[in-house]
Design brief:
The structure holds two protein chains of two kinds.
Chain A (H helix, E strand, L loop, with lengths): L6 H38 L12
Chain B lengths: L11 H6 L1 H33 L13 H28 L4 H31 L7 H22 L3 H15 L2 H11 L19 H46 L1
Helix pairs in contact in B: 2-8, 3-4, 3-6, 3-8, 4-5, 4-6, 4-8, 5-6, 5-7
Chain lengths: ~55, ~250
Amino acid sequence: MDLGPHAVFIVWAYVGAIVAVGGLVGYALFDSRRVASRLRDLEARGIRRRSAGNSP
Amino acid sequence: MTVDIAVKKPNWFSRLANPGQFLAWSKAFVLPLAILTAVLFSVGLYLAFFASPPDYQMGETVRIMYIHVPNAILSELIYAVMAVASIGTLVWRHPLADVAAKSAAPLGATFTGLALFTGSLWGRPTWGTFWEWDGRMTSTLILFLIYLGIIALWRAFEDQGRAGRVIAVFTLVGALDIPVVKYSVDWWNTLHQPASFSIMGDQHMAPSMEIPLLVMTLAFASLFATLDLVRMRTEIFRRRAETLERQAAAKLA
């Protein structure tokens, strides 16, 4: 596909968007797993909510 | 003498506000929303690159519009969501309101940063400059800095409940920038084009460009909804973990 004489601007715009969206998705998953493992660690030490129910 | 106490069943809004209930119902939405986002991006990118023509003036650079405009719309929309959540924090002490506001802030900052970045890259071949201190661009940069300030404030407070109330006030003051961003292109002379979409339907864009733009806007909105749900769930679990750690520390002391 020919993006014309200004292809570099179009490519950089989409690369920037892919990097930013990838970063958001990656960090959301990483943070979710980190918190889940923190809760699992607490539970393994016998520290849990009185109404323990949901887990991540 | 007996006294009858009528126990009112919580209404749907109260049930929705309960963090435990939120965790239960939101879990079912994450995967379908993630799939919807992937489908919308696949269709949107295909339409943006293979089914839409180059613009008669801007040529191929018009393809930057398909990511710039959705990010610009979301930058304002997410702030509006945060402002509503801030009212929920200050007026109703809604248990999920500050969780919603905190979770949305980094997403709003990223989408605003992307709107500035892609707009700058679109501006260079179109206007001959990466940046111009006009109303739209300057007010969007201010919005980006407000987002960063809100994120920094969340990190500055140990007590997240107190942080929620202080940041809610800051967020509502910052909301004054939203009408400036929105109407700057009407109020002042600017290089920037007017709104691409209009609720009144007085904008006329060719369907071959309008449909890809609409699909890409829905894709980014769906991405926001998915990530916001995931981040809200994570934030609730994080607060639970912090409470348990505090309780455990207090028992040891």
